[in-house]
Structures are given as structure tokens and as C-alpha cells.
Amino acid sequence: MTERTTETEITFMHPFHLESLSEPLEAGTYRLVADEELIEGLSFTAYRRVATHLEIPAISVTVNRRQFLQVSQEEIDAALASDGTGSGVARIV
């Protein structure tokens, strides 16, 4: 099975909350990593998302170790909508 990983940077203008964390995360730009697998048997190339991870803390924070928090795309979309930034996608790397 063929897999691919896509990294996207998303920006929050305000602190935001995710269900799996007890404390809100600070405003800033975060790296969102999506793992996808090839859907086989189609006459065209298509991928299905199998995992989404948010790298914490924000990219601008200097730390010795970063963590990847598994999140759903729906939760990220809801957090971005609450933040008022819409899609929040800054760029695809």
C-alpha cells in the first residue's frame, strides 16, 4: 500500500482548546501532519486520510522536544472556525 504525508501550517490568532488537552494552546502557527494511504483499484489516483497530528507547541516556540497530538480534521476545522480564521491554512509544505 502506498502512503504519503502532507504537512500544512495553520495559524490561530487566539488561544484555542482541543478535547484531548486540559489546558488551551497558545495562539500561533502550528504544523498539521496528515498521513494518507492510496485507495487501490480505482482508475485514478486517490488517497484516504488515515491519521492527522498537530505538532505542539507552536512552531515559533523554542523547545528541546516537540510532541505530535493525534487530532481529527473536524476538531481542527472547528477550532479554526471558533478562532475566526476560517480555513487557517497558511501554506502546504
Structure overview:
With 93 residues, the protein is mainly β. The chain has one domain (3-92). Helices cover 12% and strands 43% of the residues. The protein has one helix and five strands. It has one helix at 73-83; strands at residues 3-12, 28-38, 47-56, 67-71, 89-92. A five-stranded antiparallel β-sheet has the order 4-3-2-1-5, covered by helices on one side. Strand 2 and strand 3 form a beta hairpin. The longest helix has 11 residues, at 73-83. The two termini are 23 Å apart. Mean pLDDT is 88; it is low at 88-93.
Instruction: Compute the number of structural domains.
Output: 1
> How many β-strand runs?
5
The helix content, as a percent range, equals 10-25%
Adjacency order of strands in the biggest sheet: 4-3-2-1-5
Keywords: Plasmid
Task: Give the structure's gist in a few sentences.
Keywords: Plasmid. By secondary structure, the chain is mostly beta strands.
Tags for this model:
93 residues, mainly beta, five-stranded antiparallel beta sheet, 1 helix, disordered C terminus
Write the SSE topology.
Blueprint (H helix, E strand, L loop, with lengths): L2 E10 L15 E11 L8 E10 L10 E5 L1 H11 L5 E4 L1
Keywords: Plasmid
